[in-house]
Amino acid sequence: MKITLKIAKIILVVAVLTPGMLCSCKTNGVRPPSQDTGPELFPVRIINNTDVDVEFIDETRLIPRRSEKTVLIPEPSVYLNSGFKVYYRLELLNGMYLSVPRTENIIISPEQDTAPPINSIIIDFKESFLTIQNNSKETITLNQNSGATVYINPLAKLQPGRIWQESPYLRPGSRGLYDKLTGESSFLIETDMYKRIALNPANVKPSSLYAYSFDGASVTLLDERPLHRTGENAWVKTMADAAGRPVFLGGNAITVLAPENQTIGCHSFDSTGHEQGPPVSMGENFTLNAAIPSRENAVLLAGHAESVGDYSPVVNLYAGNGSLRSSLAPSELPEHYSAFFLTAAQKDEGSWLAAGGARDLKGAGYGAYLRMIRETGSGLVCDWELGPGGFNAKTPEDEVCHEVISSTYDKNRDRWLLAGYYENMRTGQNGAYTAEVSGQGRIQNINAAYTNIEFNKIVLDAAGAWYLAGQEYKGNDSYAVLIKYGADGKEQWRQKSQSASHSWYQDAMVDEVNRRIVLCGTLRAVTKDGSGGAPFIEALDMESGALLWREDAETWRRDNTPLSEDITKTSLALSVVRAPDYGFALILSALANGETQKPYILVRVNSQGKIYAKGEQR
After folding, report:
1. What residues pair up with 386 in beta bridges, in sequence order?
2. Lesser CB count within 10 Å: N end or C end of the chain?
């Protein structure tokens, strides 16, 4: 008799596995001979392209992750209407796994010798689970926070021929797995000394796994991920061919555009680090600073070319196959003949703002420069543009708004929010400025009151609040700073990292679901350009600005030396994006002579910024 664990709340029962069962939590057990009743078995090759093990029909036909195997199956013609069932093995804890059926069966015709490949994980399963690692020196229990003491038993381990419920006690150094109904959001951890510590999972989602650790005084969330991602590990990829600064492209994959071999290569990776086909080459190499996905699988790239000390702004629209679909013509205004773009933002699928700097005729270097771009049947056209003259007219005589560093579109107010660098030509004092520009290209406000501050990123949340991320100088040191403004333009809070040397935020993104701002940059650098610094990622609470978690090169190296070997050579975290389903991806780089240099590292981290190797608890 085959012994399994059937999950129904926390009740553990002995059951016989059949292909129609919804799920079972199990380890290796004893199985009787095959129960197939067909008169003949036929060989069929099964290809498993997912990152979890799968069972074809039942567990006697196990196909490991990313592999293929020829198995014997009953007469296919019997199953032409209903198809054969596939089960995914979703690992929950140390070989304990959930066996969940695929929502779509596989149809195999009698003449086929290879089944359609299993390329994705398709499940409909609502239950959630949590694990707790007891790192304290006391035995603990997990209770429902309902006023009365209701102990919750961890799901039991299994021995062939025997099954039992574990006691509610979790000893020091052990890890427990708990069945967790979606909607339950309040638990208590109780110690031998009768201390009670709250465990309150936030924004609990169905079909998810939550991992926590307890150190005797507090509970720490280690990871949260969908069940169908339980087999994934964080990973690191060195972009060996990159010859310039790579940038992320938004979308459903981790897509990186990297200048390489006199072209710009577009590389797309799935959540587990497998590249989705060969890279796509997009035209000649130029300095790339921004990339935005567009309709019909197109990509808008913005940057500049340089020749004999002058800059030529570049905005190109490429088709999905890498062919150039359209290119923005140069400005017709002679004062903007030398210009560059550092940032781009999207208004809708067919219009964008490109921003950067253009030569300032007042002799003060390069001033703020904007071009509003729209795609038409004949290509890219410029609806309006603003240059240094327009910005200088809105500031006091001696203040100059230099290049725009970051931009975003506020659709609720039809305006563009900009952040850049300013200088007082009389006093030599410099800092940052913000600007608000209407959708029609009229400057509504310029605020140049940020002395000794530099902003590298401006982002907007769904409520209309906006956040400025960069660094603030104080004496010989600099601190990473994030400032939040409400939709009304009033400052709500300002948070600074407490660094002993030079630190800054380079990039930021809004995580609306978890109500946090995720940022990356450099910590504890020896010099202001980042030498000797540590790349890092952290999350701040959107409402209060409180630090939720932080991970950097030192903690990555401590947690996972093999994966972090190349990370030790980097100093800068250049950009961060959301990875598919959960967690984040980062681009890191080394530094030489004040410029970004190889190695460029693409890092996949989990939802708390951590890197875990294969086999480690998540």
Report:
1. 370
2. N
Rounded to whole angstroms, the Cα distance separating 118 from 69 reads: 12
Six-digit token pair at 269? 């990776």
| pTM listed for this prediction | 0.88
% of the chain surpassing 70 pLDDT: 87
Which of 185, 181, 272 minimizes the C-alpha distance to 230?
272
For residues 313-326, b (16+ Cβ closer than 10 Å) or e, as one string? bbbbbbbeebeebb
What's the pLDDT tens digit per position in 533-548? Answer: 999 999 999 999 999 9
The rounded distance, in Å, linking the Cα atoms of 214 and 192 is 14
Tell me the helices (H) and strands (E) count for the chain, helix number first.
Answer: 2, 44
Tell me which residue has tokens 């016989």.
Answer: 16
**HSE of 573 in the Cβ direction (CA atoms, 13 Å)?**
32
Neighbour tally for 95: CB within 10 Å: 11
- The Cα 163–Cα 246 span in angstroms is 54
User: Residue for token digits 């339950």?
Assistant: 184
Distance between CA atoms of residues 267 and 277, nearest Å? 8
Q: Is the peptide bond before 599 cis (omega within 30 degrees of 0)?
A: yes
Beta strands in 360-429 (DSSP E): 366-376, 379-386, 399-410, 415-424
Separation of alpha carbons 600 and 246, rounded Å: 8
The H-assigned helical ranges of 401-514 are none
Q: Cα 56 vs. chain centroid, distance in angstroms?
A: 32
Confirm if 469 and 508 have CB atoms less than 8 A apart: yes
Segment 360-387, tens digit of pLDDT? 876 668 999 999 999 998 899 999 999 9
- Tell me how far apart the alpha carbons of residues 241 and 232 are, in angstroms, rounded to a whole number: 26
- For residue 297, name the pLDDT band (cuts at 50, 70, 90): confident
User: Which single residue is written with the structure tokens 């809708």?
Assistant: 348
